[in-house]
Amino acid sequence: MNKDLSDYEMIAADFPFYVSINEVRHSFPAHRHDFLECSLVIAGEGHETINGIRHPMSRGTFTFLLPYQVHDIVTYSTTPIRLFNCMFAMELLVSSVKTGSPYLQALLAENQRPFFHMDSEELVKFEEMMHGLHNEYNQTTPFRNELLTLKLHEILLQFQRIRVSRQGMNAQEKAYPTGNGSIWPVIEYIHYHYRDDLSLSGLADHFRIPPTRLSIEIKKHAGINFLHLLHKIRIRHACSLLSATDMSILDIALEVGFSSYNVFGRLFREYKGITPTEYRLANLRA
């Protein structure tokens, strides 16, 4: 099952972020999605399987999932697994830091273990941060979105700090297999440069990867081909502009990288099921 952020009606198009406290009573079926996700278990026991590799879940388990990683959850205890769950689009990371930053490279490296279990001191700190994130999300005060972005970055940086500190514990933790190769520099580049005239051949030249291999890796990793991935990123940004600005639809089309209004309109209807004008009106009414 593939999920997109746009599938969730509670997520605003102009700020692709959502945090909640959820319960898994028996299981959550295998799925993958186009957004990033982090979670902190606060009660219950079970296991999660990520790209075919299982790890236990209990109070204090923190997990950070990259887009398109297949995962499921199964409970063991009679009580449900209760956890903080935060979903957010890649642009909340890439819009705040420079391309190729050590922070992004560290977070998005695929040969790292995607979870760890906290000791009691770490759990107190992370529960406090997650509660703060959740409380801020439910506010309507000025600068809410900016503060949420900062709080999210703090949580992820603290996660990465602990993850790096534990890499020397044993060799297995240094190389957590994901089966996805090293495609993330390309994905990151697309998210930064989606406005540009990108092509598969141009990316292949830039990253010195044969075009056929690059096409296969993107398809295997994202579940869609390069062109569909690029269109989805552009359409998502267009939705934000339609919801949050009074820019003309032509200007939005050009701003997000489409060469013409007609191409943008056709693809927008193909991906969203309605026209850009209808989307804007629906979000104004909401």
From TrEMBL:
SUPFAM superfamilies: Homeodomain-like, Regulatory protein AraC. One of its GO terms (molecular function) is DNA-binding transcription factor activity. It comes from Paenibacillus endophyticus. Residues 184-282 form the HTH araC/xylS-type domain. Keywords: DNA-binding, Transcription, Transcription regulation. Signal peptide: none annotated. The lineage of its organism: Bacteria, Bacillati, Bacillota, Bacilli, Bacillales. This is AraC-like DNA-binding protein.
